[in-house]
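Extended Data, panel c. Modelled sequence:
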Amino acid sequence: MNISEIKAAIDAGQIVHWSHTGYVVSRDNAGQYLITYTRNGSTIGLTNKAGTKLNGNEGDFFIAEPSEPVVKCCWMCLGTNVQLDAWLAWDLTLQTWTFAPKIGSAVCNDCDIETVIVERPASERNIPEAETESEGAANEQAAIAEDQQALQRAYFAGGV
């Protein structure tokens, strides 16, 4: 996908990912297009400062094709008892409150922390029982390190 295709998909309400579903491309309330790593909230711009070159290869961006139901959960404990703050703004024309594009913080009521909400296939909702807590943490850290390396490679290849 090129820059204009990505922006058009986002503006049409489609979910766009970079590299894998852990990275989500979005537009913030200031109109900036961003790539966010959902596990830790790390964010970079979709393009360089001039807006002419993607931070990543065109072939690595894709539109999500939901093939099965998903659950929204806490990235830390994978609990599904999560809440997301939303903002309302007064619409002068409609004379009513409407949802603003700004999204507030997310909270996990299972582990009682502010969190990042991630999307997982409903079939993978729970961590397998055979995986111990320390193994799960080690696997999560390895995945985060791998994804951060991919982001760094894209940064140096495409330049910000």
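Residues 133-158 form the longest helix (26 residues). This feature is highlighted in the accompanying rendering.
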